[in-house]
Amino acid sequence: MGTGWTETARSVAVILDGNARWARRRGLTIADGHRAGTKAVRRTVEAAIELGVEALTIYAFSTENWSRPEDEVGDIIEIFGETIERELPDLCKQGVRVRFIGRRDRAPAELRERMANLERETASNARLDLWIAFDYGGRAEIVDAARRLVEDGVPPSDVDEEALAERLYAPELRDPDLLIRTSGEVRISNFLLWQLAYAELVFVDTLWPDFGEADLRAALDEYARRRRRFGGR
Fold first, then answer.
1. In the annotation, is 65 catalytic?
2. Nearest CA to 78 among 15, 42, 31?
């Protein structure tokens, strides 16, 4: 993590919230809301490219989301697979490199295969890094990193921030400069707890399916008006 200031947020993280409320307000099913949310993902990725963002991390499915009603979880898994097949390939042609972070052992085998294939197919792209957090939890990530320290036999005297960071799910993931959460909720919900230590936080009332370039631009403008000190003066 650097200590300098830049007016442009190069690494942006987004908590996608509000799909269900968006659907209920329109008399639609929650699945319809989630499908509308996938189109917002595509709009936002395309906008990020245009606005000079280099890394975009989206919170697609948390470890806690498994506790939702079984039919909704099933719909989310199905829609997630559809998104990989239908929405993301065109983005990949635009130079987007896709990576998934989080657990994969609880996902259906077919979905895991689709995820792995997309990562392989986009590995050489360099226009935008799109990180998709699926079955992800910030606390679980830190616990898993601590477990790897023990498994690797790292002596206590050598345990420091760098040693732990190297054992996170994706050590190469850039710490976000900016976190955006949609739908008016004001919390980070166990997302990137380690990586968000010095991120600027922007909360917007827009429900995720309505989010687009104007919202992203406004959040980036808000970021640019702030001065980050990283604990200094």
1. yes
2. 31
19, 65, 125, 175: the catalytic one is 65
Rounded to the nearest 10 degrees, the angle between the axes of helix 70-86 and helix 30-50 is 40
* CA–CA gap between residue 200 and residue 164 (Å, rounded): 23
| Residue of 167, 148, 138, 139 whose CA lies nearest to 13 | 138
To the query of whether residue 17 is one of the catalytic residues in this protein, the response is yes
d(CA 178, CA 53): 11
Beta bridge partners of 55: 11, 129
Average pLDDT over the chain reads 91
Q: How many degrees, rounded to 5, is the angle at CA 102 between CA 195 and CA 48? A: 60
Cα 175-180-181 angle, rounded to 5 deg: 125
Distance CA 109, CA 7 (A): 43
Q: What is the pTM of this model?
A: 0.91
Q: Which of 17, 75, 129, 215 is catalytic?
A: 17
pLDDT at 2: 42
CB atoms within 10 A of CB 193: 14
